[in-house]
Amino acid sequence: MRKNTKPAVLAAATAALALGLTACGSASDPSSSAASGGAADESKPLVVAASPSPHADVLNFVKDKLAAKEGLKLEVKEFTDYVLPNTATEQGQVGANYFQHKPYLDDFNKKNGTHIVPVVNVHLEPLGLYSKKVKAITDLKPGHTVAVPNDTTNEGRALQLLAANNLITLKEGVGTSAKLSDITDKKGLEFKELEAATVPRALGDVDAAVINGNYALEAKLSPAKDALVLEKSEGNPYANFLAVKAGNEKDPRVEKLAKLLNSDEVRTFIEEKYQGSVTPAFGTPAS
C-alpha cells in the first residue's frame, strides 16, 4: 500500500506524540517563540527532533563540543519515522527538526497544510541499493523482488536510482515523483513497497532493497562499502537540513545552531565519522 500522510492520520499521531512530549513542553513552549509574536526565550533549550543517525549524532556532537561556546542550550529528541518530527515542529512541541530533504518537505507541506521551512543545509546521505542475496546488480534477474520506500518522494528517488542503473525503465519526465505505475519496463523485477524505516529489516526477505542513508547506517550498513549502487553526490537535490515552523527562522537559538551546523568542526566530524557514507552539504537550501 502506498503511504499517504493524511491529515486525519497526522492528527492522531500528533495527539499520541503530545503524550510523550509533555515533559519537554516548557523547553519548546510555542508561546515563547517568534511564531507566536513574542521573542524567543534564549534561556530555554532549543529542542530539535532528529532521526537517530546521522542527524542526532551530528546534533549531539554540536551539543557536547560546540554549543556551550555559543551560549546555546540544545536538547535532541530522536524519532524513527518521517512524520512526527514535522507534526511536532508544526505544533510547537519541538523548536526545530533535522531529518529531511527539500522534495520530501515540499510534498509534506502540500499534503498536510503545514508550514515548515528549511533553514540551512547540513549533509547528504546517498540512497543505495543493498542485498544479502546478490553481489552485483547484474545478478538481479526476472522474478527477483526489490523493496522500495513507500513515501512519495523517496519512492520516486529510489526508482530514479534503479532507472539510472538500467534495472528499470521509467516514463520520460516523471522526475522524483515517479511511482510504480510510471515504470514502463520492470525487466521482470517485482517490487515491494514498505515504510522507509522498515526496509532494512526486510533486507533478508527480498532479493534487494533501496534504503535511505540514515536507515542504512542504523542497520550497521556502510553505504560507501555495502551498497550495490549508490546515488551520486554531485548535483544531488537531497541535502538534509535544519528546519523550523515559518516565523521561527530568526529565533537566536536557531541562528546559533545553523551557524554551528555549518562550521568547520562539523565538516570534519562528518568526514571522519562517516568516511563518505554521509557527506557535508553546507549552505542555503534551494527555494
UniProtKB/TrEMBL annotation:
SUPFAM superfamilies hit by this protein: Periplasmic binding protein-like II (SSF53850)
CDD domains (UniProt xref): PBP2_lipoprotein_Tp32
Signal peptide range in chain numbering: 1-27
Keywords, comma-separated and alphabetical: Lipoprotein, Membrane, Palmitate, Signal
One Pfam family here: Lipoprotein_9
Membrane disposition: Lipid-anchor
Keyword Transport: no
Keyword match GTP-binding: no
Cellular localization per UniProt: Membrane
Family affiliation: Belongs to the nlpA lipoprotein family.
Protein's recorded name: Lipoprotein
